[in-house]
Amino acid sequence: MSASEEKFTRQRVYDIQTLTPNLFTFRASRDPGFRFRAGQFARLGVTKADGSVVWRAYSMVSSPFDEHLEFFSIVVPGGEFTSELSRLREGDTLLIDKQAFGFLTLDRFPDGRDLWLLGTGTGLAPFLSILQDFEAWERFERIKLVYSVRESVELAYQELIAGLTQRDYLAEYAHKLQYIPVVTREDHPGALRQRITTLIESGELERAAGLALDPEHSRIMLCGNPQMIEDTRAVLKTRGMRLALTRKPGQIGVENYW
Ligand SMILES: Cc1cc2nc3c(=O)[nH]c(=O)nc-3n(C[C@H](O)[C@H](O)[C@H](O)COP(=O)(O)OP(=O)(O)OC[C@H]3O[C@@H](n4cnc5c(N)ncnc54)[C@H](O)[C@@H]3O)c2cc1C
Ligand SMILES: NC(=O)c1ccc[n+]([C@@H]2O[C@H](COP(=O)([O-])OP(=O)(O)OC[C@H]3O[C@@H](n4cnc5c(N)ncnc54)[C@H](OP(=O)(O)O)[C@@H]3O)[C@@H](O)[C@H]2O)c1
């Protein structure tokens, strides 16, 4: 089969940054034909020693207008994909499906005033893509980024988040963003300590945000741990909010990572 007939392209890995033994970030070259909307994911392929290829979904961290692609990865001990991925070195080849996928994009919400981005662990990734693009900043009056990890060393991309509103093209919108880190298993200055679900139930999240969660104004994206997503949806349901579907508007968009 010729390269143009294949469903994927071969890209080069570079700029690998280790955050913890279980978390790392990396960049990959981007095929000029690879198009995506902020919030979508790619299918990445790694080749095992026996020559077979393993594929997994990975949200883009980078924005649709960046020349490169950036990803944020967990290392699952014994995981079929991440065992191979974490062995890759600068210059190695990564397969990337030619098509991008996913519905955790802003077109899920035709209206709304406040955008809440609630993520656990590597579920931060699509929100960074969304926040590096214009649309969210133009459309929403307020943006709350809530990022929950177990321990403070797992808080990734702190510099990128802090620098977002310093970027020339976002500076005029700087007042719209509030970043609310959550560290659940230790005290960390400036971070909330309870799970996102508990913080919503107790009202602590809204107090920290200075903003109410309500069906008219709030549009909420949930990404990461599937149990967090299920539990948060249940809490939000009691507040009159439900999943936004193509034919039935709602307040919530989700991406389960496993
Ligand atoms: C739409 C979508 C987007 C995704 N985007 C990302 C991403 O940007 N970054 C990323 O690291 N992973 C992402 N994932 C998960 C990723 O596809 C793989 O599951 C992950 O790379 C582990 O692969 P594995 O073969 O090593 O383990 P798997 O056999 O795939 O998973 C084994 C177990 O590891 C745990 N696990 C898997 N992924 C994660 C994770 N991300 N964080 C914490 N625990 C996990 C779960 O308990 C899972 O049952 C995404 C998944 C989906 C469906
Ligand atoms: N070996 C290591 O050093 C190490 C370190 C971290 C993770 N891991 C492994 O990696 C995997 C994923 O870890 P992770 O830390 O990325 O993901 P995680 O378990 O999803 O935790 C990330 C954040 O989500 C919160 N959370 C989990 N379930 C929730 C729920 N139902 N509702 C609301 N919030 C919820 C966690 O709070 P809580 O703290 O309250 O759970 C934590 O703040 C796990 O299987 C874990 O065993 C290994």
UniProtKB/TrEMBL annotation:
Keyword hit for Nucleotide-binding: yes
Organism annotation: Zestomonas insulae
Name assigned to this protein: ferredoxin--NADP(+) reductase
InterPro entries reported in the protein's UniProt record: Cbr1-like_FAD-bd_dom (IPR008333), FAD-bd_FR_type (IPR017927), Flavoprot_Pyr_Nucl_cyt_Rdtase (IPR001709), FNR_bac (IPR033892), FNR_nucleotide-bd (IPR039261), FNR_type-1 (IPR051930), OxRdtase_FAD/NAD-bd (IPR001433), Riboflavin_synthase-like_b-brl (IPR017938)
EC number: 1.18.1.2
Domain of life: Bacteria
Family stated for the protein in its record: Belongs to the ferredoxin--NADP reductase type 1 family.
PANTHER family: OXIDOREDUCTASE FAD/NAD(P)-BINDING DOMAIN PROTEIN (PTHR47878), OXIDOREDUCTASE FAD_NAD(P)-BINDING DOMAIN PROTEIN (PTHR47878:SF2)
Domain annotation FAD-binding FR-type: ranges: 6-107
Enzymatic reactions: 2 reduced [2Fe-2S]-[ferredoxin] + NADP(+) + H(+) = 2 oxidized [2Fe-2S]-[ferredoxin] + NADPH
Keyword terms: Nucleotide-binding
